[in-house]
Specification:
The chain is of the alpha+beta class. Helices cover 30% and strands 18% of the residues. The strands form four sheets. The protein has a three-stranded antiparallel β-sheet, with no helix packed on it. The relative contact order is 0.10.
Amino acid sequence: MESLLARSGNRCELCNAENSLSIYTVPPAEHPNNQIVVCESCLLQLSSGTTSPQYWCFLPDAMWSEVPAVQVLAWRLLSRLKNETWAADSLDMLYLDDDTLKWAKQAVIEDAAPAEVHKDSLGAVLENGDTVVLTRSLDVKGSQLNAKMGTVVKNIRLVADNTEQIEGKIDGQMIVVLTKYLRKQKS
């Protein structure tokens, strides 16, 4: 840690903050020299998985670091923010040697295809076997059944090829319900 702090001048290698410094490992872990010094704020942003454009406005300065791990992280974050004009412009200016660019693209490929998940109307992740509640009354197509708002559906099954649908039994009849009309019941 002392050698990393000396290299960084006791500052975050991304935003130059001097408080609450720690070590961050730029994935993949087996890559040599993949550790950088980051402040608590940058670490929170990195570990949360969200990319707030307002927070990362210092990346156009950080990307010029001579430390490959900082360059890689700057490239990855700018790539995620490329819909922002400033980020796209910075990404166009950033030059990485072939090995560093290959390293930078490793995690982007892993991150590129997020897992498809079923979410209820409030954004809670649904899983097979969950219990849900209807958030509105629904007429079931091809049936006389009217599923009332507040109806509890137990032991749901996720429709594998459509994240917007689940299957469940209401009044003994197996039906498909859109996830936007459901709320996961807390267990």
